[in-house]
Every structure is written in structure tokens, then in C-alpha cells.
Amino acid sequence: MKELWLTFAPVADQSAQFMGVTLDQINWLSIIYMVVAIPLSFGTTWMLDTLGLRITLVLGSWLNMLGAVLRFVSVLGSLVSAAKFPVVMGGQTLCALAQPLVIFTPTKLAALWFPEHQRATANMIASMSNPLGILVASIFSPMIVGTTNNISSLLFIYAVPAAIICFLATVGIRDSSPPTPPSASAESSTSEPFLEGIMLLLRNKAYMILLLCFGSGIAVFTCFSTLLEQIMCVRGYPNDFAGLCGGLFIVFGIVGAGFLGLYVDKTKKFIEATKVNMSFSALACIAFSVVSQMRNQRIAVAVVCSLFGFFGFSIYPVAMELSVECSYPVGEATSAGLIFISGQIQSVIYILLLQGLTKPMADSPFSTCSAGDASLSWRVPMLVMAGLCSAFTCCFVIFFHTEYRRLDAEAQAIGKKPTLTACQTVTSQTLTTRQTPTTSQTDNTQDSDQKEEQASG
Fold this sequence. Notes:
two-stranded antiparallel ribbon, MFS, FLVCR1-2_SLC49-like, transmembrane, transmembrane transporter activity, single chain
């Protein structure tokens, strides 16, 4: 699905020439996803928690397929040139409508179909398919489009997998949940009604901190992906190197998410893993804001982008699971969906803010940007982005504390002791030590009782 979102971005010049429009209009083929996602997300969370996974996924796959086919129809010879771009935009809008219906499902899917020791890994695999789609579009769109005559081939190639996935989803997805629930929380299915769940989340302090801070993290990563080429070309780095850094960012992010998902599944240390990785991500963001403003530092820039992806991308699936743990029994789609909405809103704000902070440069002799971008300095915006990332990370590390409500509910359902946080564990051990008599104390008490019985006899 993400490859449909970024189909035209890596080949913007050829696409604009083929359709006879400006680059700004081509950019709107990507922006439409963000515009549609914010209002539609509320309806998507209601659908997932009320109508279930099957209806939501099948509807999303059909919208995605129809949009991909409509985009291909726009390049057929029978269509007049003036109608090409409006038809492409119509198909892109249908694909944008499908995005929330699919992107919100990993947390719900993991909760209903996987036991508690596999949920984080399942969420990771499903969530990381999105950046993998971005990587596919970044690599294959330039490969397929050698000239403007190949735009039609590009749209046809991307429409084929969309049609196949639609067929598989329609035929293969039979139920929203398995016949045998894999966990106690899946079996009880005590999700609050949608509106009541929203109100509970707004009163949940821990969730609101996660909503704000992790939403800010999503916004920072969106800014990084969107503005990377513009930031680096000013300092003389070519577009192919910027694309390489973007690829390293995604590849190392997928690797990091794999390791962290397996670790969290075994240890259940959601809070500790999220705080540590957010801290390293903030450090990587600070490093990027510095090295991206230096010339001839390709190795340093590539390493920093890799570390930024490794620690930053890996947080996403774990944070989604953490949102469920701190908000249970609110529906999984609702708790995860509101964080996604927060990230989208903050992304728009951050991008406009950073673009507004750019300043014209008196001279840029090493710039590899196009004429319109050559004179813009990104030094101040990069420092502001690093400052925002650091501030929200500190806020999360200091103020976020919560119990694992879903794990505790599952433990109580099967008769186990509830899961405790680190502080609660220390307190519990201290109380146990104070309340439980030692062996010598027990023996002395028994000897005293025996002596009293002999004296009375």
C-alpha cells in the first residue's frame, strides 16, 4: 500500500512531464494521503472495534485495488490529456481512503490472533510492512521509469499486486477472530464502546503522555523522510546519496524492530524498551542535525541515518502494544488509532514549522538542489527538530509510568499473580520480607508454644 502512496515521488519530474502538470500538483498525490487520514481515522477505529477485522480489511483491499486500477486507466490512450491528472488523483484518493483501514489493524490483529508471548513480534511484522512498501517504491519506481513513456508500465505493475491482494483478502479472510481465543483478553473481549473508550482515554494520564510524546516522534520521522533530500542537497550531497540514506534508515529500522519485538515478547519490558530506544533516537536526531550541515561527511551521515532508523523505527510496534497495555479494556484499534492521528496532525504542524524557519542563503556554491531550493538554509530547522525530539523524549522518560493492564487482566483470568512494574516489584518484595517470619523466628515460636503446653499439663 505504501508503494502506491509514493509511486510518483521518486519520479516526480517524469510524472509531471507525462501528465502535463506542475511538480506541486505531483506532490499533492502524496499529500492527499495525510489529508484523508486525519478525519477518516476516527471512522476506522470504530469499524475495527465494532465491525471487526474481516470487514475492515476486505473493504480496505477493495478500495486499494480500485484506486490502483483507476490510476492505470488514466494513462490509457483513449483518455484525453486534460483528464489524466484528475483521474490519477481520483485513484490516489481511493488508495488514501484504504490506508487507515489497513494501517490500524496490526495491534488488533496481534491481540485477537496471537498469544501474549507472540503479540509484539506479530505487531512488528505487520507494522514493518509499511516502511518496506516505501523502500520498494523508492527502489523500483526509478528503475521502471527510464523515460516518461514508461509511466503507464509503472502504474500497471503496481496495480497487479493490489488486485492479487484484494482477491486473497476477499477469499482468504473468513473470520475476524480465530475459533479458539489465543489469550484470556481475546477470549473475554471486554472492549469498551467506542465513545466511552474515547472518554476513558482522554482521562488516562499515562495514555495522554504517550499520545503526545510518541505522536511527536512519528512527526519527526515524517519530517525526516519528507525533507531529507532538500536538507542534504544544500550541502552538496547528490540525490542518489540522499536516497541511499533513506534506504539505510528503513532497512536498519526493520532490523531493529525485529530484535526489539523478540526481546519485548520474552521480557514484557515495554516501558523500559520504549524509553531506552526513544533516548537513543533523540541522540541520533541531534547527531543528524549536526552532521547533515557539514560537507563531505558521507560516512558519518550514513551511519547516523542508520542509527536513527535502527532505534527510532523499532519503537513503533512496541509503542502500539504499550498503548493497549496502558489503556485496556479500551479497544485496541481506538488506542492505537488515536496515536496515529496525533502523529499525522503533528506531522503537518512540524513540516510547516520547519519549512517556515528556513532562511535564504546569500551563496550556496556546493548546492545540488534545483534552482528553487538552492538558496534555503536548513540549519535552524534542524536544530529545532532536534530540540523538539529531545524535549518530548525527556517528557516521556520522566513522566510516563503505567501498569500493564491487559497482562494483569490475563494473569488474573488464569489464576496467576499480576504483572508488576519494577517499582511495584521492589515494594512487594519488601512487604513480603517484613510480613513473612524467618525460619529461626518460626522455630522459636514453636518451642515457646510447646513449653507452655507442658507447663499447663
